[in-house]
Amino acid sequence: MRFRNKLTGQLQEVGFDIAFDAEGIWSAARTSLLLHPYINYAQHYLDYDYKELTIPAVGGAYALPKEALHLWPRGAHLMIALPNPDGSFTCTLFLPHRGEVSFDSLQTPDKVQAFFRREFPDAVDLIEHLEEHFLHHPVGKLATVKISPWTFDDKFLLIGDAAHAIIPFYGQGLNCGFEDCSVAEPVHRITSRNWPAIFASYEQMRHLNTDAVAELSQDNFVELRANVADPVFRRKRELETLLEKRILESSLQNMQW
Asked: Could you say which architecture CATH assigns to the domain 23-39+149-225?
């Protein structure tokens, strides 16, 4: 492995017996694997980017109910707000990166103000320094990454987003990384430090599940920005909740007998 000190520019080479790569979605080590044969790789960018804004606390209290996930579904775009411990909310706006209504098209304070007044009239006055923060905060990218195999030369293993990065709309990206560790640890005990067997068993156990979560995340983005505002969809959700409640009540009654 070759490391560069960002302050001095000095390079250092370090040998290893076994390595776990948890560098995240932009893993440099994973990129180096693509120079070798038999590595299958796919990176899919969403047509949407995101930008984070802030709804500050008001007098030390939350400006919106903190127990709720706040959604502004607009079909072609979406804004969400999640509470922070200090009473503020982090607002995340998801917009196409190009097009008539996109991050590329909102480049002046007047355009930003007009867009938010039109699309999010109940939130626009809550957002801190709206025009300034919108124009100066960075735009984040959204991508799904798949690679196979996750191992190389029986001594190198990708875990977490380095192996299976997903877009954030199912809320399970970080949990998938933790689950990687929880799966790998018992496999390690069972195989008694037989690293080729550990790596092979771990990847076989995890690959199918992480691919499934990636697909669910993509489907849920459409649900969040479009379907949740549809009256028919909402009635279906109400019916699902009612059925779940009835089934649970029935199960508890049977257990009591």
From this structure: 3-Layer(bba) Sandwich (3.50)
Q: Where are the beta strands (DSSP E) in 77-218?
A: 78-83, 89-96, 140-148, 151-152, 156-158
149: preceding bond cis by omega (within 30 degrees): yes
Paired residues of 12 in beta bridges:
3
d(CA 154, CA 68): 46
Other CB atoms closer than 10 Å to residue 153's CB: what's the count? 8
The confidence score (pLDDT) of residue 228 equals 79
List b or e across 100-111, with b for residues whose CB sees 16 or more CB atoms inside 10 angstroms.
eebbeebeeeee
Tell me the two tokens of residue 239: 């019916």
CATH code for the domain defined by 45-140: 3.30.70
Beta strands 140-148 and 11-13, pairing class: unpaired
Report the predicted TM-score, pTM, of the whole model to 2 decimal places. 0.81
C-alpha torsion angle, residues 208, 33, 144, 55 (rounded to 10):
120
Query: Given this model, what pLDDT does residue 257 score?
Result: 55
- Which SS3 state, helix, strand or coil, does residue 185 take? helix
Asked if 139 and 97 count as a contact pair (C-beta separation under 8 A), the reply is yes
pLDDT below 70 — which residues of the chain?
A: 256-257
